[in-house]
TrEMBL record:
It holds the Pfam family Peripla_BP_6. Keywords: Amino-acid transport, Signal, Transport. InterPro entries: Leu-bd, Leu_Ile_Val-bd, Peripla_BP_I. Residues 29-370 form the Leucine-binding protein domain. Residues 1-24 form the signal peptide. PANTHER family: AMINO ACID BINDING PROTEIN (PTHR47151:SF2), LEU/ILE/VAL-BINDING ABC TRANSPORTER SUBUNIT (PTHR47151). This is Branched-chain amino acid ABC transporter substrate-binding protein. GO terms for biological process: amino acid transport. Belongs to the leucine-binding protein family.
Amino acid sequence: MQFTAKMIPLAGALALAFAGAASAQEQVVKIGHVGPISGAIAHLGKDNENGARMAIDELNAKGVTIGGKKVKFELLAEDDAADPKQGTAAAQKLVDSKVNGVVGHMNSGTTIPASKIYADAGIPQISPSATNPKYTQQGFKTAFRVVANDGQLGGTLGRYAADKLGTRKLAVIDDRTAYGQGLAQEFMKSAKAKNVEIVAQQYTNDKATDFNAILTAIKAKKPDTIFFGGMDAVAGPMLRQMKTLGINAKFVGGDGICTEMMANLAGDALGDGQVVCAEAGGVEEAQKKGMDAFKAAYKKKFNADVQLYAPYTYDAVMVLVEAMKKAGSADPAKYLPELARINYNGVIGKIAFDAKGDIKDGTLTLFTFNKGKRSQIAVVR
């Protein structure tokens, strides 16, 4: 048959029809991520977001199908600036955008209030890093986390401070956030059970830069260990001021200070072996090769090192999608039951949830710093 100019409109119409049919077959699945992309701990929020973005890009490159339909994943990233009010606003924005699932938030203080908004909308939420026990104690069927909680984290650190560091006189500082306060309470509970005397308890906030008054008061009590419940952006300057005041106590904290950035923030005040911290997660020897490969791929993609929880946001996205695949649907109501009973082997190891949404058999990794570099002490359960 001879092709004529008159056929061009028909050919165009057919091409559009085929394109429309193809796009109709491709389902768009929106996954939200929320973290502090601005403010003092923006480096940690961006790290989390990068982990989620890495997972989305890999999934799209693979060409995932759900329920027989090819899927295109979109990441809707929001900034909560580690502020509870901004966190709930971001959560509502994602709900209004009809996301199929959420990975976040990073901080307990934003995760907890946002969780009610997601629960009311029936949207599954996996936090990669919120550790306050209250998050999963609210009874929301949509709330999950892939890290150990503060009960495990604070308890382990408290026992370590008593048994391994020989702590007998303890001073405690927290930043009054849901994370910092909750972690400090669990640490003190564990330390007291080991007959450690708490000689001082002081408070600051997550934006403070001057700690001379509280540190001077603490110095008079002569503690051998100071515990800080808060983030690296505060801990770094605090260590500098401890050095200026001649306070030589051990400095113990949770995952918020257990970052690669701590060396930059504390500078030469970060003495070898002085700081002990715990990350609410960690890989045992069997997963080490996979984690090393992830870190290398992350470095290549973003030209930056993993700060803390990027592997956890990466796995959280993968877990959401695995539940969707098992359910044959990205509809939250349909895949939520599959998410609750998921059994997934990720970069961080085995991921399965208990009845509350907490990770089963969560690991903890203890670290210290030597010559400005974070070094692992042990992985414990």
